[in-house]
Specification:
The complex is a heterodimer. By secondary structure, chain A is an alpha+beta fold. Chain A has 3 domains: 7-66 and 287-333, Alpha-Beta Plaits (2-Layer Sandwich); 150-228, Alpha-Beta Plaits; 338-638, no CATH class. Chain A has helices at residues 15-28, 36-41, 54-59, 72-86, 103-137, 150-154, 168-176, 206-215, 231-283, 305-315, 347-353, 364-378, 382-396, 400-420, 430-433, 446-474, 478-483, 488-505, 513-528, 530-537, 548-571, 574-597, 600-638; strands spanning 2-3, 6-14, 32-34, 64-65, 159-165, 184-187, 196-202, 219-220, 288-289, 293-301, 320-325, 337-338, 422-423, 426-427. In chain A, a hairpin with an 8-residue loop joins β6 and β7. In chain A, α18 (488-505) runs antiparallel to α19 (513-528). The longest helix of chain A has 53 residues, at 231-283. Chain A is extended and about 125 Å long. The mean pLDDT of chain A is 86. Chain B is an all-alpha fold. Chain B has a domain at 87-191. In chain B, 28% of the residues are buried. Classes of the chains: A alpha+beta, B mainly alpha. The A-B interface holds A 173-174, 176-177, 180-182, 208, 211-212, 214-217, 219 and B 160-161, 164, 170, 225-228, 230-232, 242, 246, 250.
């Protein structure tokens, strides 16, 4: 319902307890650590002058940031590599970190497991490499047609033989200058081996040939001597060897897999603890340490203070905890919103505009109710609302916030749809089932719809005036709260203007016109003079912040803008009625098209198409229009939203 | 009309950027200064580079150079946001050149077993490049470096030469060829159907000039076989086609080669009998710079202006480096002027 109140907690403890305390805090996930040095620099980190605190105070002259000595990155790399090989995805699990532990044995264990794997891993790498080589050599098949023993060919004394690949383009290049190449280049014209060549060059020109071939990117495929034989025999030999290697490979992989069962729990445990260590390390820069003590500060919601204190007491009695009100800390407190289940999902829409600052009233409840009403009124349909509701339930599994949002506006749409007597665009269907006289069909009551929309707008604007005035007074801003356009004077002016309009258009309504005119006049003067009057009241020794000329030109224009925005803010709500009509109008269009087609198929297809289009397109438009009304017409009146979120330092 | 939509905003942006380039007067003033620091002060006080050099910490050459290189990438990012999508590929290909330069720098260091940890340490990944400099800089050996490039076009090229002797030379050579072929392909795809395209012509003339330099040096200093020379030439020349290049590669002596080139369209490179070799690189650059400057006169609503600008910026950077280095080592004004890509008039 509101912004939760925050406390600043300053903690000094023995360094021996540091690890355990941090671990517990991180698991509890309800404190937001801030840079303790900033608190100390601003002399907000104070310790009570008492004999038992003497060591802690003395050592404060010798503060350093906390730095982790271990190289956690290397350990993490090792663990990641292991998890890759064992094909498991690691997740942080709380249960491993609940007891206090020493990290050094963990580190040892990681290294130990890694070493066990390392040997097999290298073996696998070697085998895979060998396999690749063997498979490359399979292209000897291409030489089958020559029918020569390769052993003889490759052991010639005066000629050098090379076998390899050449790309089409480079082959052209070579052939263009073929008369000057110092070798015979034979194209192996076997379909499967199109780009393979056999190069024969005199041994004495071997170097030149190699250089020329290199300049056309000839990819030489060397044959291992042990396999050289007739191509057919070679092929058999190679295939046999490949089978053998593959067997060995799968055996080694199997071995690793088996190891997995022995070590999986260890690795999971190590991983969770490693993540915890990393988190503590990352918080380290905000924490100050000396030889014997550590000092830290954190924001904590008031409701969690007791829990944290109990936690600290459990660990060690001798810890100094200093609790401060948020104002005393000299820092802007973070905002943690506390809302009921109905309004909670709407927080995200509020955040889209801005996070409420710590001192502001949380607008979420007002926002959620208003938004649901506006959405339902614009998009009222029992059937389609149900679609939103179901879609919302489905999406909740993937995107919790959006799903919940969708189901809530869906319900609102269903309620309005019921009273609009509209089910998937068919009017008069619900009223047939429930023959009561409680329905209001928008298209038959156009004027009522539009008028009610504007009236709704006026109510909402009054509520936002109330919010605005409340916020301004809470912030003790007299100038805006009393004399501002969204303050009391603004409220009076708006009321007077509404009454004048009512006088003009409603015959049954008559209010003293002269009195109203005088009130309007007075409020205008007050708004024009708001700064000098405020300063006079506050007994400041100046009247204006700038030169009076500038001030009056500025506030003159502001006044014009005030009138314009009062008019446009009010009329803006007509769109709520208009969209309700528009919704029906679109259906009428689709019904007409269905009638034109005439057949049952046409009817059904138009029904589906029309509903899909309306759900997606109009649903989106109404969603945005609702936001627009909330942001521009209402939020701009009173909501500042320059706070920042409370983000506890935990592992989520 | 279509071209207005594509180029109006871009060309306006280019015009603004071109105004930031140094003028002839700036060059005259810079040449006259007598210390690197004075030059930097001049940049800070009198030119648009003041913004760039503002956060220069050490006033030494290499930090200045780094900032200028960075400037190039910043300008690239600026231009690409105005660029019509179909031209982005071309710009990406043009900028592959810097990617190639960076890879070469890595290769050279690693080949000498030097550490590359600090190389491009704070290099933000620019839009033009998909390379992950952080990963690349973590390589300890050349082999590991090549392995890090897996998945890019460069991997295959570098991997091929990994075990050959003189691998550095062949790697660099293949990278350059890869770059030029890629650029040429992109340009051809875009402009090949046009009867004449000035940008494509400049690129092809550039290929000619690179071929000339390659054949000349390969013959005179490196003793490459004619076959090898021929296999590494770029086949994307303007005047020199395969047949012409073949006859150049098979020239019996260097003198014969020079004589043949003297009769070609690029005879101007060899006019100065004594100094032509010393001046060759500058003359080539000056020639191409002139081609880009000529482009301005005919440029209308097309991509030429922006490509021209990028090259002008590149040449300006080279000239600035030449000036700073020459001043550092106390070259005479006349020699300095001689080394510049542009001809500085007056003074």
């Amino acid at each position: 319902m509101s912004v939760e109140s925050m406390k600043m907690m300053n903690i000094v403890g023995h360094f021996d307890d540091f690890h355990q305390i941090m671990r517990e805090f991180i698991l509890a996930n309800n404190m937001q650590f801030i840079d303790v040095f900033r608190q100390i620099d601003e002399s907000k980190f104070t310790l009570e002058m008492a004999t038992e605190n003497i060591d802690e105070i003395l050592e404060m002259s010798n503060l350093q940031t906390y730095q982790e000595q271990r190289d956690l990155k290397k350990l993490e790399e090792k663990i990641m590599l292991l998890s890759q090989h064992m094909d498991v995805t690691l997740k942080f699990e709380k249960k491993y970190c609940e007891e206090s532990y020493d990290f050094i044995p963990i580190e040892k264990k990681i290294n130990e497991v890694y070493l066990t794997f390392e040997e097999d891993r290298l073996r696998i790498e070697g085998l895979e490499e060998k396999l690749a080589r063997l498979e490359e050599m399979l292209c000897v098949e291409a030489l089958d047609a020559i029918g020569v023993n390769l052993d003889d060919l490759y052991s010639m004394t005066y000629f050098d033989i090379m076998f390899g690949r050449l790309s089409q383009e480079n082959r052209r290049r070579l052939s263009m200058n073929y008369e000057n190449v110092t070798a015979a280049v034979m194209h192996i014209d076997v379909p499967k081996y199109k780009n393979y060549y056999l190069v024969v060059s005199p041994m004495s020109l071997k170097k030149e040939t190699e250089r020329i071939l290199r300049s056309v990117y000839f990819e030489k495929i060397p044959f291992d001597e042990e396999y050289l034989a007739e191509p057919k025999d070679m092929l058999n030999k190679l295939k046999k060897e490949i089978l053998k290697t593959e067997k060995e490979l799968s055996k080694t992989k199997e071995k690793i897999k088996n190891l997995e069962y022995n070590y999986i729990d260890d690795i999971k445990e190590c991983y969770s603890k490693l993540i915890m260590e990393k988190k503590i390390e990352s918080l380290g820069e905000k924490i100050a340490v000396t030889d014997h003590f550590f000092y830290c500060s954190a924001w904590i919601p008031e409701s969690k203070v007791n829990k944290s204190q109990r936690l600290l007491e459990k660990i060690e009695k001798n810890i100094i905890v200093d609790l401060k009100e948020s104002e005393e800390s000299g820092l802007k407190a973070p905002t943690k919103l506390k809302n009921n289940w109905l309004s909670k999902p709407f927080e995200s829409l509020v955040y889209m505009y801005g996070v409420p600052n710590y001192k502001e009233v949380d607008p979420t409840v007002f926002f959620s109710i208003t938004y649901m009403i506006l959405f339902g009124a614009m998009f009222g349909d029992l059937g389609q609302g149900l679609v939103f509701l179901l879609a919302g339930f489905y999406i909740q599994q993937k995107n919790k916030m959006f799903g919940e949002l969708l189901s809530r506006v869906g319900i609102s749409s269903m309620i309005f749809g019921f009273f609009y007597d509209s089910f998937f665009g068919y009017e008069h269907l619900i009223s047939k089932v429930i023959p009561l006289d409680i329905f209001i069909r928008p298209i038959e009551n156009i004027n009522t719809m539009l008028t009610v929309a504007v009236l709704l707008g006026i109510v909402l604007l009054y509520l936002s005036f109330a919010y605005s005035i409340f916020n301004k007074f809470k912030d003790s801003d007299v100038e805006e709260g009393v004399f501002g356009r969204n303050g009391i004077v603004g409220l009076v002016l708006y009321t007077a203007l509404l009454l004048i309009v009512a006088n003009q258009f409603l015959e049954s309504f008559s209010f003293n016109q002269q009195f109203l005119t005088i009130i309007v006049f007075i409020t205008i003067v007050l708004m024009l003079l708001k700064e000098p009057i405020t300063n006079k009241l506050k007994k400041e020794d100046f009247l204006y912040h700038e030169s009076p000329g500038e001030y009056y030109v500025e506030s003159g224009f502001e006044l014009i803008e005030t009138f314009l925005s009062m008019l446009s803010n009010t009329l803006s709500f007509i769109r709520v009625g208009a969209f309700a009509l528009n919704h029906v109008g679109l259906f009428i269009a689709f019904h007409t098209m269905a009638d034109l087609i005439g057949s049952t198929f046409g009817n059904v297809s138009m029904f589906i198409l029309g509903n899909l289009l309306i759900i997606f397109l109009e649903g989106l438009v109404v969603f945005i229009q609702g936001l627009r009304l909330m942001y521009y017409e209402i939020f701009s009146k009173y909501y500042i939203g320059d706070g920042y979120k409370f983000e506890p330092s935990g592992l989520e | 009309m279509k071209n207005v939509a594509k180029f109006a905003a871009l060309n306006t942006k280019i015009r603004v950027l071109e105004r930031e380039l140094l003028t002839n007067k700036d060059y005259l003033n810079l040449i006259g200064l007598n210390s690197v620091e004075a030059c930097i002060n001049y940049f800070l006080e009198e030119t648009y580079y003041s913004k760039l050099l503002e956060d220069l910490k050490a006033k030494d050459l290499s930090s200045v150079e780094n900032l200028f290189y960075k400037n190039l990438l910043v300008k690239y990012d600026k231009i690409t946001s105005f660029l019509h999508i179909e031209y982005r590929k071309i710009f990406k290909a043009i900028f592959m050149r810097y990617e190639v330069e960076h890879i070469k720098k890595y290769l050279r260091k690693l080949n000498q077993n030097k550490t590359v940890e600090m190389l491009y340490k704070n290099f933000e990944n620019a839009k033009y490049s998909d390379l992950d400099y952080k990963v690349l800089s973590s390589a300890k050996t050349l082999e590991a470096f090549v392995e890090h490039l897996k998945g890019t076009d460069y991997y295959k090229i570098l991997y091929y030469h990994l075990s050959s002797e003189d691998r550095l030379f062949y790697m660099e050579m293949s990278l350059d060829i890869h770059y030029f072929n890629r650029l040429n392909n992109e340009m051809k795809k875009k402009f090949g159907h046009q009867k004449r395209n000035t940008i494509l012509e400049i690129l092809q003339k550039n290929s000619d000039l690179l071929n000339i330099q390659w054949i000349y040096r390969g013959k005179k200093y490196y003793n490459f076989s004619s076959e090898e020379l021929l296999n590494y030439v770029l086949l994307t020349g303007y005047y020199f086609k395969y047949k012409d290049l073949k006859s150049l590669c098979y020239a019996k002596t260097t003198q014969e080669l020079v004589n043949r080139l003297k009769d070609s369209k690029y005879g101007f490179l060899f006019k100065d009998e004594e100094n032509f070799e010393f001046l060759m690189e500058r003359n080539v650059e000056r020639y191409i710079y002139q081609l880009f400057k000529d482009l301005e006169k005919v440029s209308t609503l097309n991509i030429n202006k922006s490509i021209g600008y990028m090259h002008k910026l590149e040449y300006e950077m080279r000239d600035i480096f030449t000036i700073l280095e020459s001043i550092k080592y106390g070259l005479s004004i006349k020699d300095l002027k001689n080394k510049l890509v542009r001809e500085v008039k007056g003074g």
